[in-house]
Write a structure and sequence with these properties.
There is one protein chain. A five-stranded mixed beta sheet has the order 1-2-3-7-9, with helices on both faces. Strands 10-11-12-13-14 form a five-stranded antiparallel beta sheet. A four-stranded mixed beta sheet has the order 6-5-4-8. The chain contains six helices and 14 strands. It has two domains: 184 residues, 3-Layer(aba) Sandwich (Trna Endonuclease, Chain: A, domain 1), CATH 3.40.1350; 46 residues, no CATH class. Helix 1 crosses helix 2. It is of the alpha+beta class. The chain binds zinc ion. The site of zinc ion (ZN) has 8 residues, from loops.
Length: 246
């Protein structure tokens, strides 16, 4: 059964001290990659047509590539594959094992949000996940450590190169749609929480046949009828342990 714990962890990560430090380190490397005509946008917030918000750590626009970059700051040993839904983090000191949503999936959603805005197939955005700490045991080309970031981007070869006009066009569209100045981190976290509250499920309410949604309760996630409060059917996520009210 899918658990939804990662959501709050994902939000927390970028707001912790380590999270911020990691983003600053990546920002410094990206800044050193900027040549005339290139552009960098940090902490971009876009809203998709479906109403979902996307907080994108870095967008780097260079003549040799357009990059959507997600910074991760987890310590420990990180294990995962390209198409695993979750990656595992093992802390060798505390022996604690936790898991996160596959960041490639998260970044894919960011890429879709950008694509929706740019709406031009000749502009190809590449997703990149950069880990600033930890030991990477991940088999995916676009997942790298910060020490490899500079070379990865400067060695990228594409044809034809993007012109300064291409870059300015993309920059202007992204900047025009950037909500980071109008939405506070607190509001964004609240909106993300609202999203966690109601996750669609394939289950059907046995009482009224409406779809069940997964909600975040005080005691963990549970199924609830999407017609609540009209129908108050609810059910534990783990067991088929039905009960009227929690
Ligand atoms: Zn119902």
């Amino acid at each position: 059964m899918e658990q939804i714990k990662y959501s709050s962890r994902e939000i927390k990560d970028s707001r912790t001290r380590h999270g911020r430090q990691g983003e600053e380190k990546v920002k410094a490397v990206l800044n050193s990659l900027l040549k005339e005509g290139d552009a960098l946008i940090n902490d971009l917030i876009l809203k998709k047509d479906d109403g979902y918000y996307h907080q994108i750590d870095h967008v780097l626009l260079r003549s040799n590539g357009l990059f959507c970059i997600e910074t991760k700051n987890y310590a420990g040993n990180i294990y995962g594959k390209y198409d695993d839904s979750r990656w595992v983090i093992h802390n060798p000191y505390t022996r604690n094992v936790s898991n996160i949503l596959n960041p490639l999936r998260q970044n894919y959603c960011h890429l879709m949000a950008i694509k929706e805005l740019i709406n031009n197939s000749s502009y190809y955005f590449e997703g990149l996940i950069v880990f600033t700490r930890g030991e990477l045991n991940v088999l995916a080309e676009s997942v790298i450590k910060i020490k490899d970031l500079f070379d990865y981007i400067s060695n990228k070869k594409i044809y034809p190169l993007y012109t300064p006009n291409d870059i300015k066009l993309i920059y202007d569209i992204l900047k025009k749609n950037d909500l980071s100045k109008t939405i506070s981190p607190e509001e964004l976290a609240k909106k993300a929480k609202e999203r966690i509250k109601d996750i669609k499920s394939s289950m059907i309410c046995p009482r009224c046949k409406a779809p069940l949604v997964i909600k975040a309760g005080r005691r963990g996630p549970f199924y609830s009828c999407s017609r609540y409060p009209k129908c108050n059917f609810s059910m534990d996520l783990d067991e088929d342990n039905m009960h009227k009210k929690r």
